[in-house]
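Q: Protein A?
A:
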Amino acid sequence: MVIAAPPVRVLLAGEEPDLGAVLDQYLASRGHRVTRVADGRSALRALRSQPFDVALVSSALADLDGLEVLRQAREGTVPPECILTTGRGTLDMAIAAMRLGAYDVLARPYRLPEIEALVRRAWEKGRQASDSRRQATRLSRLDAVPEIRTVHPPLQAVLALAGRAAQAGVPLLIHGEPGTGKAALARALHRASPRGGGPFVEVSAGTVAAARQVAEFFGIEGSARGPATPGLVEQAAGGTLCVEDVERLDAAAQLALSRAVTRGRYKRVGAAHRLEFDVRLMATTSVDLSHEAQLGRTRPELVAVFSSVVIALPPLRDRAVDLAMLAEGFLREVGGPGAALSADAIDALQRYHWPGNLQELRNVLERGVLLSRGAVVEARHLALRVPVAGDGGPPAPVTLAELERRHIGATLERTEWHQGRAAALLGISVKTLYRKIREDGFQRPGARA
């Protein structure tokens, strides 16, 4: 069973009737929820009355300028990611749209699969921003304690190197599998550095459209059409700029960032004069940048920038000595001071392979606390696939179908089997949830078999 991507709530504003109908039908056929309006004022009314993930706004609206609709759309409390479509695209229009916060500008004619992929990427960026806001309290609490806790000697040596590197001003690359704590370590190194009193600006390279990356990093020069827009480099001046998944930068952005570091100067988009590059650059990656450069996927200039200091974080499966300590620490955070692990739960944790590393450990314990409904979390609450006795190898991989089943089960437990709330949290209809309950054989607690 394949878990389908969730539908995107799309507002389609002002496209020509024939093209709009085709685009509406195509996006709906791809599983998205499309609301189509004919003009700018109708688009603004729709935005005020219901939430949207992505707004496709034509620049040629009958009643309002497309840029004005874009401006008002982006001023909302939870604004959608906006894509401006145009049949007469110019550089000035693209710059104005980006200054107003557009995710991208798309010139007609365009291919339907291209715009559907763009909608999906815009939705992903908005979702990650929303997740970041929801987790701000949790992250601030985690920032108050040491980010990397370990008694594992190799990792202690790595952290000693990291502490010394924090005092230097050279660019720094943190390498490790997803979930090993790369971003948390970057925040700690910033605070320990001479720039610790300055701003710490984070950006995930994969959430910024390739066409906007240079402008996102370096800003846009002011003109008669509007004031200057500072980029991330300017926002991080005097502090640290951390680029997560740096290998996902577009080639042009990789080159521009590398040149800014080596020259110590940069220019906003459209500017004639240069500004000082007053930023400590950090980056995280899960891949070998040198190998990526050999394959032509990463600029050699970017590899050279990060050649001085590379900090490699080991995966959790290599830190068995740390597991009990880490589990107890996470358990106190998610379950309170009275939460505890049973002996069989500790055994299950120690025999699991942890492909998702620290992030997976935290998620497993959070789920265990929800399912236990008590102070003691047992192995059955963790839902881990571990090797059988005598088998020292890694556990069998968990299928997508099994992951989906576990997620549905945990959500039903969390909502005390209120199927309406569970369906809303899962992003599916109550009818679909009922079908999955029947197909997967879920039993309400206390129900007769």
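Q: Protein B?
A:
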Amino acid sequence: MQVSAKTPGPMRATVVEWRAARIEDPIERLRFLRATTGGQTPVPPRRAWQVAMTAVLWASFLIPSYSPSTARSRIINSTPIPVGTTELSIDPRVWPVEQNLEFDLYSNGLRVENGFVTHSKPRTRYPVFAAQPKNGEPVEWQSQPVGIVFHSTESHQFPFEPSEVRSITRIGRNLLSYVQQQRSYHFVIDRFGRVWRVVAEGDVANHAGKSVWSDRKAAWVNLNASFLSVAFEAQTDSSVPLSSAQLHAARILIDMLRSKYSIPAANCVTHAQVSVNPSNLRIGYHTDWAEGFPFGALGLPDNYRQPVASIALFGFDYDTTFLQAAGRPWPGLAAAEQKLAERARAQGVDPGVYRRALQDRYRQIINSDPMRSNEDNQDEKQ
């Protein structure tokens, strides 16, 4: 967390202020200010826009490709997460070691590059629904991410060979520029295993659109605000596999995010598992990672076995086109259908009638005032 002594006076003061603002503990913040100012009285606070403009100019000299901002999301959170009996072990104490404009370094070896960081709309409170088929009213509101959705960029892939390094690098940087413009993902893992922060964690990325997921405690509809997004530079229908560097980077990135936000393993799922089409009430509007996601290699259980929430809670269906994309029926499809049938029997109604009642519940939710109000405050992309 050192600020170079070579930094010019006014610029150095701005960088010191910018770094100090990211330290939550007031005692640690005071120590930092004293250390960086040689024990002198810290520079009086400036107005936010003055600090932002000076930081922008300074960052433009240091990192030409960086998209600076004045409200980077906080990274520090050392609270361990409880590891349940159904979850694989993770490091519960991943903490930041160094943070600056170029990169963030964490205790588990994770390095997150900040060269393409940008901001979207801040994550505001979003509605949470019951994990059981009840009415369409929210049971609570939350403001922290509760899960991770995994994506593939579906971008062009050169052979992963030494002779193609320049082409791979060029395509990768073009991809990052596009993701930055579209504010598509929070993180992108490139083919060399570098983790790039694109949309700041405290903001909403346009990654999930119309989507549904649930764990044992709660259900979420339209996951842009409630879930973080991690995209692999990859094509899911390609013969080119993820590189070992990508797998390693993804595992330690997941460890950091789960440690920081207490995310359960069951809420680390693929885009294909959560994506829905409200117009025909079928799942799999997007099918990236409909098959072959390396859950085990990333320290996660096989979440293709998780009951598909859009089916069990809201009566969605699927067709042969989706099954072709999935390659095989997920165990979670059968588990969701079984849940639906069991609940129909428990209520003494025909499964078809019960499915239509669940679909009505979904329509009630997406057309409700809480959902409309929330989406007015968030960017959304189908």
